[in-house]
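Q: Please design a sequence for this.
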């Protein structure tokens, strides 16, 4: 999958370093323009205009993304040379995989999928996931494997914007799809996990982007992550909304 490039400044060797406030403003501007809160599929969701079948397709395909998050974080963890960094980043893996005291985000997402009416075993098996979903999500793994650790960390900074979207999503899902109420634990947990995670990550970028060129690479990595999230919704919209052409082997919405 070729990730669409984010237009970013070409920093000359003499370009001044952005202050922390200026860099955060650039991150926020990237999110405002490119984060998937603006995607038509999410807008339909928040307006209560998606069918149960369309929500099932969303929950199923999003599960593939959720399932690779601890893999992505384990890759970043393995690249961290500093034990302080590794201890902080290890929390992310536990948040999604769970441990002896917590069920974890992946299990919570399965509960959401089950609330839509999907078979949890089929969700775990990945039956019917769109090919474009796999390509987009696998590209995220490519980013954290192949780019610098700075860029890998910066790609996670969609967490700077996710709390606002999750708050809206929970409100709208409760309002328009009350039958999902028992499956919303994932989002409620992320309301306190995401701000903590994003603060650590953004401070890491502030401390380790030593040149303007490195700052621009961090901004680019965040933009590419936004593209990956957007591409997943593009695939859902094409397959299940307009024109409604799921490819061979993909999940099919049952006729009501």
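A: Design:
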């Amino acid at each position: 999958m070729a990730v669409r490039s984010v237009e970013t400044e070409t920093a000359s060797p003499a370009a001044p370093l952005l202050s922390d406030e200026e860099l955060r403003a650039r991150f926020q501007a990237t999110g405002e323009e490119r984060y998937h809160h603006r995607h038509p599929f999410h807008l339909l969701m928040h307006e209560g205009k998606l069918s149960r079948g369309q929500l099932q397709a969303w929950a199923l395909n999003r599960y593939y993304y959720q399932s690779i998050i601890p893999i992505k974080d384990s890759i970043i963890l393995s690249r961290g040379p500093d034990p302080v960094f590794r201890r902080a980043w290890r929390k992310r893996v536990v948040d999604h995989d769970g441990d002896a005291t917590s069920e974890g985000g992946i299990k919570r997402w399965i509960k959401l999928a089950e609330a839509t009416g999907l078979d949890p075993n089929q969700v775990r098996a990945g039956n019917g996931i769109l090919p474009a979903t796999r390509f987009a999500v696998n590209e995220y793994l490519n980013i954290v494997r192949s780019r610098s650790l700075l860029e890998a960390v910066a790609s996670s900074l969609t967490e700077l914007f996710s709390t606002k979207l999750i708050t809206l999503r929970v409100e709208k899902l409760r309002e328009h799809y009350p039958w999902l109420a028992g499956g919303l634990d994932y989002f409620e947990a992320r309301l306190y996990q995401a701000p903590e995670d994003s603060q650590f990550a953004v401070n890491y970028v502030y401390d380790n982007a030593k040149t303007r060129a490195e700052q621009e690479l961090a901004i680019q990595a965040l933009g590419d992550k936004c593209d990956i999230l957007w591409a997943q919704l593009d695939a859902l919209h094409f397959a299940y909304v307009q024109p409604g052409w799921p490819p061979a082997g993909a999940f099919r919405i049952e006729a009501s």
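Q: Thanks. Anything notable?
A: The longest helix spans residues 212-240. Residues 159 and 196 are 9 Å apart (CA to CA).
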